[in-house]
Every structure is written in C-alpha cells, then in structure tokens.
Write a structure and sequence with these properties.
This protein is an alpha/beta fold and about 425 residues long. It has 12 helices and 19 strands. A hairpin with a 2-residue loop joins strand 16 and strand 17. Helix 2 packs across helix 3 and helix 7 crosses helix 12. The two termini are about 30 Å apart.
C-alpha cells in the first residue's frame, strides 16, 4: 500500500477509523480497529485508556509496514460532546462521559444563568460544559477538561488545545472565535486554547514519531467533530452547498456565508473554514422506510416508480409523535394516510414526503438568514437510489448528487492537508 502524506483519525463510539491521503488529496487506504470490550463501562461511559491502546496498536502496525514513512500531518475527529478530565501528566482521571450521557442537568441550568451568549447569531450550547462541571462537582475530578479529540492532541503534542467545532458544545463563540467573557471569568485557566479546524497546532513528540516510525516533526492539525468531518469528506466546499444525510433520521447541513441559530428547532452553526455550516435534523428518515419495507423491497419497488409524476398523498412520514425540524411540533402525529393498495405507490408517497421535508428544511435555513441551497450532496442509505434522487431534485429545485466520501476519517485527513496548504478545493481556505 502507498505511504500516507496526510492522516485522518475518526475516534468513534465503537472504534476508530484511519484514512490516508496522498499528496494529490486522493484517499489511498482506510483502516479500522474496534474498541476492546473493556472500553465500555456502561452505555454512556467509556475508558479512554482503551481508546489509546487501540490507536497505539494500529499506529505501530501501520508504521511497521512502512505506511507512515512519508507522513506530513494528521488530524482527529471525535464524537461531539464527549467529555473527560486529565491529570497534569496527561492521564485520564476516570471514565469519559459520552455525548449521550444525560447527567449535568442541574449544572446546565446553573450555567445558563451566567448569560454566556455573546452573539445572538449563535445560540450557546453547553451540554459538554455541563458534563465537565458534573465531573468536577459530583466526582470531584479537578483535572483539565477535554473533548475526546483534545485528549489525543495532548498525548501527541503536550498542548491543551482544541478546535472551534468540538468546543461549540462547551459554549465557545464560533463567530467571534473566542471564549465568552462569562466563561473566561469563571473557568478561563482550565479551558483549552482553541484553533480553527484545519490550522496547525504543533509537532508530534519525538517519542511517538520513533514508536510509530513517522518522520521527525510530523504535525498535528486542529480537527473537528465526527459530523463536521463527514461534511469535509463529502466534497462540499462552496457557499450554498448542502449535504443531506439519509440515515435513520434526516440530517441537513448547509455551507453559508453567515451563521444562523434557532434553539427551538435545534438549528445551530459550526465554523467551516471562512464560512459556516448550518445544521438541522428532522424526525423523518430511513427508519420510517425500514418500518414498512426491507432494503430489497425498496430497491425492487423503486423500479416501478415514475419520479417525474407529481405527488398526491401529501405524507409527513414519522414513526411516532412529534417533529423538531423544519417545524417545531411536539404533538404532531404521523401523516401516512390514505394508504394505497399498491406498495410501490405507498413507497412513492413516503419518498415524496421525505423529499418535501428536506426541501422545507433548506428553506427554513434561508428564512433564518442562511445562504440559499444551490446543490445538494447525499450520504447515507438512500443516497444511491436514483429514483429518490430525482424526486428530491424536483422538490429541492437544485441538482442532487452523491457525496464524494462518507467516512469522517477522510474529512479529518483533508483538514490535515489544509493545514499545510495542500487542499486546493474552492472555499476550503481557513
């Protein structure tokens, strides 16, 4: 296998993924390792030492095979909102609280009273900050707070440094690119320095370069969250590029020249180079399809659908009560009647319904002040269904294509290349 120039490491919930890019930006290879069973302390707690052991083992193996001999830079992506603390020598004080850990509600309510918002365009998100305060107050952990990515950056460079994407859920002001004054006053000494994703943090320590057979001085770039890394991987780069994830739920991201936020519907904005990525997610999506059809049935019945025929059923496909985006309707019931006797017609109605919600989502972004969508890239299980793509293109009124890559590790590797000025795609400058 060819040697990597840029490496992206996606530190996930169940394991890690590593993607290697060449000098021209092409993805050369992908590797993965699942976490050992000892990592999983509970559904919402994991052992960071197990993360490191798996990462170290895989890096040693890649180094022994000569696949890291030409490496120039690496960057990490991790689960947004996962929190741990570390001692002065870099050891984790205990288990990490994962992004889905519900603890910290009392701390969250107290933090809200600090008046953190310094920019009305970006609603302050503090879920991760509240988890850290829970660790400090309930478990008496006094060490430095870190995101999942930050801990790897510290182990490699010795710097308590983070990126503006991972710090969004810590209350970081992504528009002004600084900590709000209220957080600086209360926690300033404990908070990390924050870099824009895709900028340099520093060199990897000599001990790790020797251990993994990396070139001396291999650099670490500021990384991002897993969902933002997937956006970098998709090929989206210009203002107006949208990325729709057709997974179990329908998740939208849009590159905009300005940030927008709507706390009620969960719309928020990440920094994306010199622009912003606006995000929102509906409760509709692939899980509705999976409830009524198998994957094989969707494929077979799609061949019987004329995507150019207008929709007459006006569905809003949900499995249970409640919608969050593009409208806030907690008591809304699924709208999946009348149901045709022809299963292909029923499937067509669901596909049209999901496409309509997607179009309303991008329209909602624009109503909030974001850039209008000019094209949409697709990832997830429904991205390769040509009939569905045509239905969506009609609803959206813009071209709909398949994303270049879906692996978050590829997006992280692109950030590593960007930090050295080697990602020349339009709109990717930091």
């Amino acid at each position: 296998m060819p040697a990597a120039r840029f490496l992206g490491i996606d530190i996930g919930t169940s394991g890690l993924r590593i993607a290697a890019l060449g000098e021209d930006g092409d993805c050369l290879w992908l590797e993965k390792a699942d976490w050992p069973a000892t990592v999983f302390a509970s559904d919402t707690e994991q052992d960071p030492q197990g993360w490191w052991q798996s990462f170290d083992d895989l890096m040693q193996l890649l180094g022994q095979r000569g696949r890291l001999a030409g490496l120039r830079a690496i960057a990490f992506a991790g689960t947004s909102g996962t929190v741990l603390t570390m001692t002065a020598d870099g050891r984790p004080e205990g288990r990490a609280l994962m992004y889905n850990d519900p603890r910290g509600q009392e701390q969250r309510d107290r933090l809200r009273r600090l008046d953190i918002n310094s920019n009305t365009q970006i609603d302050a998100q503090i879920d991760a900050l509240a988890r850290w305060r829970w660790l400090a107050e309930i478990r008496r952990q006094s060490g430095r707070p870190l995101s999942q990515v930050d801990w790897f950056v510290y182990r490699l460079t010795g710097q308590h440094a983070s990126d503006s994407n991972n710090m969004l859920k810590w209350g970081f002001d992504a528009l002004a690119e600084r900590w709000p004054a209220a957080l600086s006053r209360h926690f300033g000494a404990a908070l990390p320095s924050v870099h824009r994703s895709g900028t340099l943090i520093g060199p990897i320590k000599a001990q790790w370069c020797q251990r993994w057979q990396l070139p001396a001085g291999t650099l670490v770039a500021a990384g991002t969250t897993d969902s933002m890394a997937a956006l970098w991987a998709s090929g989206a780069s210009r203002e107006g590029d949208g990325v729709t994830s057709l997974g179990s739920t329908l998740a939208l991201k849009l590159i905009s020249d300005r940030p927008v936020a709507d706390a009620a519907s969960g719309v928020y904005s990440h920094r994306f180079g010199n622009r912003f990525a606006v995000s929102g997610a509906s409760n509709t999506g692939g899980r509705v399809l999976a409830h009524y059809f198998s994957g094989a049935e969707v494929e077979q019945l799609s061949r019987q659908i004329d995507p150019d025929q207008p929709d007459s059923l006006d569905y809003w496909p949900l499995l249970g009560r409640g919608e969050r985006f593009p409208m806030v309707a907690p008591t809304m019931q699924p709208r999946l009647t009348p149901r045709p006797t022809d299963p292909a017609a029923f499937l067509a109605g669901i596909l049209h319904g999901i496409a309509r919600i997607e179009a309303l989502g991008y329209r909602r972004f624009a109503e909030l002040g974001a850039s209008p969508a000019r094209r949409v890239l697709s990832s997830g299980g429904g991205a390769h269904n040509a009939v569905f793509r045509t239905i969506r293109a009609h609803a959206l009124g813009v071209p709909v294509t398949v994303a270049e890559h879906t692996e978050a590790a590829v997006g992280a590797a692109r950030l590593a290349a960007m930090a050295l000025g080697c990602d020349r795609r339009p709109g990717t400058s930091t």
